[in-house]
Amino acid sequence: MNSYETMYILRPDLLDEQVNQAVEKYQNMLRDQGAQDINVQLRGKHRLAYEINKQRDGIYVQMNYQAKGNVVAPMERAMRLSEEVIRYLTIKLEEVSTKAKADAEEEPAEATA
pTM of this prediction? Predict the structure, then answer.
């Protein structure tokens, strides 16, 4: 299984109940597809860097989860077709090997010597 992070922006005019329903919808979609360790963080309403679909603000939601690669496409398709989602982005998080961690810890010690 791979680690993924999906960040999506909901319309700012949604009520709290509608936001919770949208979050649950995508969380359940992941769970039904076999995703594990789903961690959802509601980041709140923030001003967008630029206007998207005549919206200046958006409600940010971050989801971290473990899943197989075939889980991402159906969820993104549902987000693309949804009127409540303004933007979305999914990235695959890299697994840091134990050797890479050990090398990273040694570098600062060598730099000070």
Answer: 0.79
Taking the C-alpha atoms of residue 66 and residue 60, their distance in angstroms, rounded to an integer, is 20
Instruction: Tell me the CATH number for domain 2-112.
Output: 3.30.70.60
**Among the listed residues 37, 43, 41, 51, the one whose alpha carbon sits nearest the alpha carbon of residue 87:** 51
- Give the integer Cα–Cα distance in Å for 58 and 112: 45
Strands 2-10 and 55-67: antiparallel
Token reading at 28: 């359940």
Render each residue's pLDDT in the chain as its tens digit; 113 residues.
889 999 999 999 999 999 999 999 999 999 999 889 989 999 999 999 999 989 999 999 999 999 988 999 999 999 999 999 999 999 999 876 555 556 666 665 555 55
Q: Where are the domains of the chain?
A: 2-112
Give me the DSSP letters along 41-61.
EEEEEEEEEEEETTEEEEEEE
**8/62 Cα distance (integer angstroms):** 7
